[in-house]
Amino acid sequence: MSASPHAGTPRMELPSLDEVPHPRRWALYHINVYARWLIRRRFDVRLHETANIPETGPVVFASNHVGIIDGPLLAIFTPRPVHALTKSEMFEHWFLGPFLRWAGQIPLYRFGSDPAAVKLALRVLREGNAMGIYPEGTRGAGDLVRFNRGAAYFALASGAVVVPVTMLGSREPGGGISSLPHKGARIDIVYGEPFAVERVGWPRTREQVGLVSGLIQKHMQVQQDHALALTGRELPGPLPSEENND
Question: Which end of the chain is more exposed for a tag (fewer CB within 10 A), N or C?
Fold first, then answer.
């Protein structure tokens, strides 16, 4: 599928990102094979329809968000190295913070604008690489009803295709916000059909981003329905009512 929003404003080039260092990539190439082996000692992780992943060019992997291990699963198991936007609080941990930076993940401040995170993500895409994002913003039911505009913005700004990702089994029904699946649990990661977006130069309008975001949301919901039918699974449902999303 594709979206070609009409641009009523003149196209301009992206501002220079030459001063923005590309996130580290060594670990994503050389450590993931061992991380996959370790995770598969505990969980039965299955990948589906990886042929939908473009072998080259910029990609925005847009995933639903149901469990605490969604981020590591996306970064470790996706066949292409993924630099995922990750909440900045996780980088404050004495061990986890340095590890995430070493693994090429991008810290994101979620409660306001974060130009540094945006520039890092755009640098990744401009170099023809892949980034990951969770349009729902927080963990929850994973049904894509709540949907932020970040995926649309990055696709429009870079011309990257959006590949939907459906995570199933990373949180069990009734599980809390930080719960892990039981040992031996099956986790399915389904890569949906790419959604092509024509690049729109600066300045972009809120209307353009909103239009494309709505189209991506609908596409991801269709692909999620396909993933549920393909795997014979269901989403875990909402978090327990006493818990707040983070």
Answer: C
Asked if 189 and 65 touch (Cβ cutoff 8 Å), the reply is no
DSSP labels for the chain?
-EE-----S---PPPP-TTSPPPP-HHHHHTHHHHHHHHHTTSEEEEE-GGGS-SSS-EEEEE---STTHHHHHHHHSSS-EEEEEEGGGGGSTTHHHHHHHTT-EEE-TTS--HHHHHHHHHHHHTT-EEEE-TT-S-S--SS-S--SHHHHHHHHH--EEEEEEEESSS-TT--TT--PPTT-EEEEEE---BEE---PSSPPHHHHHHHHHHHHHHHHHHHHHHHHHHT-----SPPTTPPP-
- Token representation of residue 229: 């039918």
List the one residue out of 81, 103, 82 whose CA is nearest residue 91.
Answer: 103
Domain boundaries, the chain: 45-171+182-231
Q: Tens digits of per-residue pLDDT, 55-106?
A: 999 999 999 999 999 988 999 899 999 998 887 777 676 666 676 777 777 8
